Amino acid sequence: MVELKNEGDKYIVVFEKTHNSIVNSIRRIILDEVPTFAIELVEVAKNDSPLYDETIAHRLGLIPIKTDLDSYNFKQTCKCGGIGCALCEVKMTLKESGEGYVYSGSILSDDPQVIPVDKKIPITKLFGDDKKLELNLIAVLGVGSDHAKFSPSHTYLKEDGDNVNLIIEPYGQLEAKQIYNKSIEILIEKINDLEEKL
Ligand SMILES: [Zn+2]
Description:
Elements: E1 2-7, E2 10-15, H1 20-33, E3 36-47, H2 53-61, E4 90-97, E5 100-103, E6 107-109, E7 122-126, E8 132-142, E9 153-160, E10 163-170, H3 176-197
Antiparallel strand pairs: 1-2, 2-10, 3-8, 4-6, 4-8, 5-7, 9-10
Bound molecules: zinc ion (ZN).
């Protein structure tokens, strides 16, 4: 028996009388295999900020991006053969000038469904009204086993008597319920694969 509870941003799935190894395999799937979007490619047209291009690219990669799972493919398995197309890449730009911090809210996306979760994440700072930051970005779908930046949530187990609680605290790319449903979909695919091989 499985029960679902919402506690603020937390989502708790209560597994009654279930061995924790089963719940832990769902946790592993969430961390490693539920896909999300993240910025993967950064082309620097202009960077007058004090941070190196590489540092800015690293910071951009860690910004959680709202994820639309229904409209996009993984680049590696896309029909384009991995070259990159509108079905596996979202193009974004960031153009900012003048004194002050540059925030994630300045990122403009070609897809209004695929945007930074939080507009207030500082990326760098410009010192001087003549200074500029101009970037071309590409976000792609990926999984946590490739890079931790793609993990959708802080996910852990808590034992409670005979029950095991799976606790999902999303970073915002996907809602908790989407994360859980996707993990179960992946688990079922794995079981079906295994059955075919037996
Ligand atoms: Zn493609």
